[in-house]
Amino acid sequence: MTRRLALVALLALTACPRLDPMQRQQKYKAYQESRFTADGLAMMHPPPGTVPYGPPLEPAVATGRGPDGKPLAVMPVKIDAALLARGRLRFDTNCAICHGVLGDGESQVALNMSLRRPPSLHLYRDRPDGYIFQVISQGFGLMPSYAHLTVQDRWAVVAYVRALQLSQHATVEQVPQEARQRLEKEGR
């Protein structure tokens, strides 16, 4: 009887989750402080040269720069309704908080920023598309990097920013003829 009790006790101890070394090991979770890293955060960016998962991207698509090292003048991805919808979603989630839903730099967060308010994105109409992509990827001034967004999402945000800029600065001549006629009939 004692052997059976000893065997049952031994089996119970081996199945005990508290003895699992994976649960007892020292580890850090994302967003925890760490005394081992220079910035004091446990979560780190992948080391330089890390190979991303998935098919390789063309350098121009991945960096927003051409072979000459200058920002691309025009986006290297196809612009369609799905890309613009994705760009709007990502913009509203990540950018509108500071830059405002119209991209004009007017938001509640911006009003409370004491050092420097986010600029209106409409001031950057003359900048190449690759420049905006690089700012999203690397950050600029007080704006942090948004490289955690996929490359496709960053280009989608660029497309949506261009749509916002066009919506605020389009001329009558840029409106398609059939839309102009419809507006004239409605008396606008």
UniProtKB/TrEMBL annotation:
- This one is known as Cytochrome c domain-containing protein
The UniProt keyword set, sorted, is:
Heme, Iron, Metal-binding
Task: Give every Cytochrome c domain span.
Answer: 82-165
Question: The organism sits in which domain of life?
Answer: Bacteria
Q: Where are the transmembrane segments?
A: none
Q: Recite the lineage of the species.
A: Bacteria, Pseudomonadati, Myxococcota, Myxococcia, Myxococcales
Q: Which organism is it from?
A: Anaeromyxobacter oryzae
Gene3D superfamilies with a match to the protein in the record: Cytochrome c-like domain
- The question of whether Metal-binding is a record keyword is answered with yes
